Amino acid sequence: MTRTINANEDLDEQIDSIAIWIGYSKNNDYELKRRILYLNKAYKSTLQIKNDSLKNKYLSKISLRFSKLKDSSSFRNVNKISVRLSKKLGDSVTLANNYWDLGAFLSSYKVNDSAYYYYYHSQKMFKEAGDNYSSGRMLLNMAIIQSENRDYTGSEVTTIRALELLEPLGKNKQLYSCYNNLGVVFNELHEYDKAMLYHNKALEYQSQNDEESIDRENTLNNIGVVYANIEQYEKAINNYTKALRTRGLKKLKPPLYAKLLDNLAYSKFKLNDTVGVVKLFEESLHIRDSINDVWGKSMNLLHMAEYYDTYNDTIKAFEAVKEAKDLAEKSKNYRDLLKCLILLYKLDAPNKDQYTTRYLALTETLQEEERAIRNKFARIQFETDHFIEENETLSEQNRDILIVGSIVLVLGMLIYIIRDQRLKNVRLKLEKEQQLANEEIYNLMLTQQNKIDEGKRNEKKRMSEELHDGVLGNLYGIKMNLAVLNAQNNADAVIKRETFIEGLSKVIDEIRNVSHELHSNAIDANVGYVQLIEDLLSEKSALHGYSFELLADDTIKWTEIKGDIKMNIYRIIQESVQNINKYAKANNLNVSINSDGDFIYLSIMDDGIGFNTNTNKDGIGIKNIRSRVERLNGVVEFISELKKGTTINIKIPF
Q1: pLDDT tens figures, 611-630
Q2: Is the dihedral of CA 66, 72, 78, 80 positive or negative?
Q3: N or C: which end of the chain has fewer CB within 10 A?
C-alpha cells in the first residue's frame, strides 16, 4: 500500500515513508518496473528533506538500490547529487561509500580504469577514518581489477595489503576472496604450487562461511584448472566432478556450470577418454550461447577444435576455430585469439604467413597495452596521493605534520624498496618466459621463410638446368647445321649463314650467363633472415610514408648464428622503427648490418627531428633496446641532436 506525502506531514512520517518505499524496492516478488517506481517515490520524497545530513544518508542508500536494479541513468544522477552533498558537508565516510558504489557500477560495465580510480579514492578515505574492514574490501576490489587486466604482480601486492587488514578481523567471506584471487594470480604466473596452496586456503575460509554461495564450486573449478595446467588430468576431473554434484548448480550459476562441463570434457579428452566428451562440449556450448557468455563460447570452441583436430576431423576443427576466432575478435578476448591463430597456423597451411604475421603484431600490441595498464594503475595512485598531499600542505602549515609526512615518506620508500626487490625476481622470470616465447615465434616465422626461399632456389636451379641441357643443346645443333650449309659456294647464302651463326652465338652466350646467374643465386642460403628484416622495413615505411635503405653484409652466415641473437636484432630494429614512426617525422631511414667475424655491427639512422640526449629521459622504447643489447652482452650508442636526426650504433658479439 502506498500513500502521498503532504507538505504538512512531520519529518518522522516522511522518513517512515522513505524507508518503506526503499524496502518495497528490495522485494523480489515485485516486478522490476514496480520496484523502480517505489524507489523513485523514495528519491522524490528525500529531496524534500531540509536536513542535509539526513538527506544525504538516504540519497546514498537510494543510489545503491538503483545500481542493484540496473537503472544506470538514475544511479548516476542520484550518486552525483550525493557526492556533491557529501563534499559540501565534509562527510568523508558517506563520500567513500559513494565512490565505492560508483566503482562497483563502473566495474560491472568493465570500465576498469575508472572503477579502480574510485575504489582507490574510497580506500584512502576509509583508511583515514580507521575503517580497516571497508579499506580492506576496497583493496580487494582493486586487486581483482588488476588481475583481470593481467597486472598480476600488482594484484599480488594489493591483495596482500588487503589480507593485512582483513585477517585480524576474521572476515571469512572476504578472506576467501583474497586467497582465491592469489590462487588465480599465481596460476597465471605459472607458479602452480603457490596457486594450489592459496586455493586450498580459500576453501578453508569458505567452509567457515555460513552464507549460501557457490564459492566452493568456483574454487574446485580453479583447483581443477591448476591440475590441468600441470597435466594431472585425473585430479582435475575429480575436482570438476565434485563441483558438478552440487544440487541446483545449473540453475543457480549457469556460467560456472557450463565452465565445469567444458573443463571436464577437455580433461577427459586429454586422457584419451572420448566417451561422452562431445556431448559435454555441446551442452556447455548450448548453455553459454543461451546466456550470451561470449568469452566462454570462444574457449569452448577452441577445446572442441583441438579435440576434432586430434581425431583427424579437420573440417569440424577448422569450422570451430574460425568461429572461436570471430568471437574472440568481437569481444577483444586476445588470450583466446592468440590460441586461435596458433591452431589456424596448423590447420590452414596455405595461409600460414598471414597467421604468423597477425600473431606477431598482436603479441607486440598486447605487450604495449599491458605496460600501459600497469602504468595507468600506478599513475592513478600517484596522482591521487599527490593531490591529497597538496591539499594537506595548503590546509595544514605546521611543522609537526611536515615531520610526520617526512617519516611516512621515508618508511614508504623503505617498504617500496623491500617489495620492489622481491618483485624483481617475478618480473625477471616473466621476461625470460616472454623471451622464450618470442624466440619460438621467430623460429616458426624463419622456418616458413626458409621453406619459401628453398622452393625459389630449387625452381631457379631447375630453370638453369633446363636452359643449359635443353635450349643450349638445340641451339648447338642448329649452329652445326648452318655450318654445314655454309660449305656451299653460293656467296649470298654464305653471308646469310654467317649472320645467323653470329646471332646464334650471341644467344648462346646470353643464355649461358643467365644460367650461371640463376645457379649462383640458387645457393644463397642467407636470404631468409635479411628478407624478414626487409619485409618489416617495407611494411612500416609504406604505412608512414618514408623511404628506407637496407645494407646487409652478404658474408654473414645467418644460419650459423644463434636464434636468440637473430630474434633480438629483429626486435631491436622493430622497436627502433616504432620510435621513428611515433616521434621522428623522418623522410629517410638507413639500416646497415655488417660483421668482422667477431662482432655484428648494426646501425640505424634517420633524418628526423632528433632529440637532446643530455636532457631527455629514456622512454620505454630506448629502455627496451638497451635491455636487449645488454642481454646479448653488446654495447649501444645513441647519437642525436635536435633537427639533425638520430643514429643508433650497436655492437654485438657472436
Answers
A1: 887 766 677 778 888 888 99
A2: positive
A3: N
Sheet strands (E) in 412-466: none
* Three-class secondary structure assignment of 296-312: HHHHHHHHHHHHHHHCC
- Name the nearest CA neighbour of 42 among 16, 67, 68: 16
Q: How far is CA 199 from CA 148, 186, 208, 312, in A?
A: 17, 10, 15, 37
Contact 224, 240 (CB under 8 A): yes
pLDDT number for residue 525 = 43
Does position 604 have pLDDT exceeding 70, yes or no? yes
Residue 597, classified by CB atoms within 10 Å of its CB into exposed (0-12), middle (13-18) or buried (19+), is exposed
Q: Is 8 exposed, middle or buried (0-12, 13-18, 19+ CB in 10 A)?
A: exposed
Distances (CA, A) of 73 to 66, 94, 290: 9, 21, 27
> Please, which contacts does 87-92 make with residues 24 or more away whose CB atoms are closer than 8 Å?
88/52, 89/52, 89/53, 89/56, 91/53, 91/56, 92/125, 92/128, 92/129
Strand partners, 591: 550, 604
Question: What span, in angstroms and rounded, lies between the C-alpha atoms of 449 and 357?
Answer: 12
CA-to-CA distance for 632 and 565, rounded, in angstroms? Answer: 7
Check: CB of residue 445 under 8 Å from CB of residue 500.
no
Grid cell in block for residue 242: 565434485
Q: Is 160 helix (H, G, I), strand (E, B) or coil?
A: helix
Q: Distance (Å, rounded) from C-alpha 186 to C-alpha 117?
A: 25
pLDDT at 8 (0 to 100): 47
What are the backbone angles phi and psi of residue 615, rounded to the nearest 5°?
Answer: -110, -30
